[in-house]
Amino acid sequence: MLRPLLFCLALILTAPLRAADAPAPFLEQDEVRTFIDEMVAEHGFERGELQRVLGAAEHQQKIIDAITRPAEAKPWRDYRPIFLTESRIRQGVAFWDENAELLARAEKEYGVPAEMIVAIIGVETRYGRHQGTYRVIDSLATLGFGYPKRGRFFRGQLKEFLIMAREERRDPLEFMGSYAGAMGKPQFIASSFRA
After folding, report:
1. How many angstroms separate the CA atoms of 171 and 189, rounded?
2. Where does residue 110 rank: exposed (0-12), middle (13-18), buried (19+ CB within 10 A)?
3. Shortest CA distance to 35 belongs to which of 179, 140, 112, 180?
4. Quick one: pLDDT at residue 147?
5. Is the pLDDT of residue 103 over 60?
6. 167 classed as catalytic
7. What pLDDT does 13 receive?
8. How far apart are CA 135 and CA 66, in angstroms?
9. Residue 99 three-state SS
10. Which of 1, 48, 138, 154 fits as disulfide partner to 143, beta carbons 3.0 to 4.6 Å?
11. 17 φψ region: left (φ > 0), alpha (ψ -120 to 50), beta (else)
């Protein structure tokens, strides 16, 4: 009888400690309120809209965990067997065939060889099949306000992302991408999309 009571007492006493470890909701953070003020003053955003979007953003520890041990740090010798497979080569040829006209037009207009575009899309998303499972707003807010090592960079990407979403007339809560906020078939960050 005493053991279950002690267990319950331990749970009750440690619950506030666990809750205190969790970051405050974004709208309760001074840095986020300052960010909203800047977006309103510098880019003409409506305060209520930014509060809606950032109020819906969720801090995700798994995003912080992922960026602190990125797979991208592997040397080429470890990547090569992943990317140079028969199935991926077949998928690349099929993707190129299906998009030949668009790829030729992009090569002519931007000077990027079609084979480079195909290779990037193949490496980043397996020709569009895997474009990310995180909401971009969660990734950028988590990293912008919860990862001091690169917070300034990710707050800049959050700014670019919100401007891009407004330009595209899309709800920022709809975009999905990588843990670092990269989006679409090529997995570009917001500043690259806008550029």
Report:
1. 17
2. exposed
3. 140
4. 95
5. yes
6. no
7. 57
8. 14
9. coil
10. 154
11. alpha
